[in-house]
C-alpha cells in the first residue's frame, strides 16, 4: 500500500514504505521520516553555526544640545498658539487684571460731601466754610438747620462730614480767644474717618495761619517759623501711583508661573511626557525648552503693563528702563522656574 509522510499539513513524500526507505537509504521507515523532516526544515547533518551574541550595553547619552532645546521651545510655542484658552489668558489676562486692580483698588479719600451748621452767620464763619469748600477733597452740600437734620442726613448717607460753627465764632477769632468747632465724621470705615479728620484739621490750621498773616499786630501772628510739609515722589498723595507699580510684579509672578505649571500638567494628562523617556533629550533641555516661550511671553506682558501704567493710568517711568527690563527678565525667569516645579 502507498503511504504519505506529512508535517505541518504539508506532504513530504508519497510511496510504498519500501520505496521511501530505499530512497533515503535508511535502515527503517522512522529514520527515513526523520531524514525527510530535516530536508523540509533545511537542516543538514553539518555542524550548527555559532550563536549570534547581541550587545546589550546601552549607548552613552548625548550631551546638551541647543537644537533639541529649541525644538521643544518651538513645539511649546505652537501648542500655546493653538490653544485659545491659554493664549487668551497669556495675552489678555494681565491687561484685564491690571485695569481691574488699577481702577478698582483706590485708597484715595476725595469728593467728601459736607454740610455746615452755622450758628454765627458772620463773615468769618462764611470764610471758614469757603476755605473748606475750596479744597478738592470736599464738596459743599446745603447747610444744616438743626441737630435732627444733621443726624438724619448723615444716617441716609447724604453727607460724610458735618461742621458746627458755634455762636460768636468771628468775634472770638478776632480777640484771639480759643474756639472749638464741632466736627461729625462718618466712622463706618475707621481708616477713612481718620483721613477725613486729618483733612479737616489741616484745612483749619491753614485758615488760622491765613487769618493770622492778615492781622496787623505782631502779637497776633502764630510764630516766626512755619513748617511746610512736602511729599516727594507722590506730591498729591494719591493711591494710583503707589498701586499700579505694585500690581505689575504681582501679575508677572502669577500669570507666567501659572501657564508654565499648566504646560507640565497638560503633558502628563495627555501622556506626551512619555516621549521624554524614549528620546535622547535631557531633563535640562526639556525644562528649559518649555520655559523659554513663557519667558518671552512674560517680557511681552511686562512691556504691555508698562505701557498701560504710562499711557492709561498716567504713572510716569523714572530712571533707566534698561535696568528695569533686565530686572524684570530675571524676575520672570524665577517666576516661570517656580511654575515648572
From TrEMBL:
A GO CC term assigned to this protein in UniProt: plasma membrane
Compartments where found: Cell membrane
Domain named ABC-2 type transporter transmembrane: residues: 95-341
TM regions (residue ranges): 84-105, 242-265, 292-315, 321-340
GO molecular function: ABC-type transporter activity
Membrane topology category: Multi-pass membrane protein
Listed InterPro entries: ABC-2_transporter_component (IPR051449), ABC2_TM (IPR013525)
Keywords for this protein: Cell membrane, Membrane, Transmembrane, Transmembrane helix
PANTHER family assigned: MEMBRANE COMPONENT OF ABC TRANSPORTER YHHJ-RELATED, MULTIDRUG ABC TRANSPORTER PERMEASE YBHS-RELATED
Protein name per UniProt: Ribosome-associated ATPase/putative transporter RbbA
Amino acid at each position: 500500500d502507498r503511504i504519505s509522510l506529512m508535517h505541518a499539513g504539508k506532504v513530504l513524500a508519497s510511496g510504498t514504505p519500501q520505496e521511501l526507505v530505499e530512497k533515503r537509504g535508511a535502515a527503517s521507515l522512522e529514520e527515513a521520516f526523520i531524514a525527510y523532516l530535516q530536508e523540509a526544515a533545511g537542516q543538514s547533518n553539518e555542524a550548527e553555526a555559532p550563536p549570534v551574541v547581541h550587545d546589550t550595553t546601552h549607548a552613552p547619552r548625548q550631551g546638551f544640545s541647543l537644537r533639541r532645546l529649541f525644538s521643544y521651545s518651538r513645539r511649546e510655542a505652537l501648542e500655546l498658539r493653538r490653544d485659545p484658552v491659554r493664549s487668551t489668558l497669556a495675552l489678555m489676562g494681565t491687561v484685564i487684571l491690571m485695569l481691574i486692580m488699577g481702577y478698582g483698588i483706590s485708597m484715595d479719600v476725595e469728593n467728601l460731601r459736607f454740610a455746615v451748621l452755622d450758628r454765627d452767620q458772620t463773615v468769618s464763619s462764611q470764610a471758614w466754610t469757603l476755605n473748606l469748600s475750596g479744597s478738592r477733597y470736599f464738596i459743599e452740600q446745603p447747610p444744616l438747620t438743626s441737630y435732627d437734620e444733621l443726624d438724619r442726613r448723615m444716617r441716609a448717607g447724604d453727607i460724610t462730614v458735618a461742621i458746627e460753627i458755634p455762636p460768636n465764632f468771628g468775634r472770638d477769632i478776632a480777640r484771639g480767644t480759643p474756639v472749638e468747632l464741632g466736627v461729625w465724621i462718618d466712622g463706618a470705615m475707621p481708616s477713612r474717618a481718620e483721613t477725613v479728620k486729618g483733612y479737616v484739621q489741616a484745612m483749619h490750621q491753614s485758615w488760622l495761619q491765613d487769618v493770622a498773616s492778615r492781622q496787623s499786630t505782631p502779637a497776633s501772628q502764630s510764630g516766626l517759623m512755619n513748617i511746610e510739609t512736602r511729599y516727594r515722589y507722590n506730591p498729591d498723595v494719591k493711591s494710583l501711583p503707589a498701586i499700579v507699580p505694585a500690581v505689575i510684579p504681582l501679575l508677572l509672578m502669577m500669570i507666567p508661573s501659572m501657564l508654565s505649571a499648566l504646560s507640565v500638567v497638560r503633558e502628563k494628562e495627555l501622556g506626551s511626557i512619555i516621549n521624554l523617556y524614549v528620546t535622547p533629550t535631557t531633563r535640562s533641555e526639556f525644562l528649559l525648552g518649555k520655559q523659554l516661550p513663557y519667558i518671552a511671553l512674560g517680557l511681552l506682558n511686562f512691556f504691555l503693563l508698562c505701557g498701560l501704567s504710562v499711557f492709561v493710568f498716567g504713572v510716569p517711568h523714572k530712571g533707566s528702563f534698561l535696568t528695569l527690563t533686565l530686572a524684570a527678565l530675571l524676575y520672570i525667569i524665577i517666576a516661570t522656574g517656580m511654575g515648572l516645579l
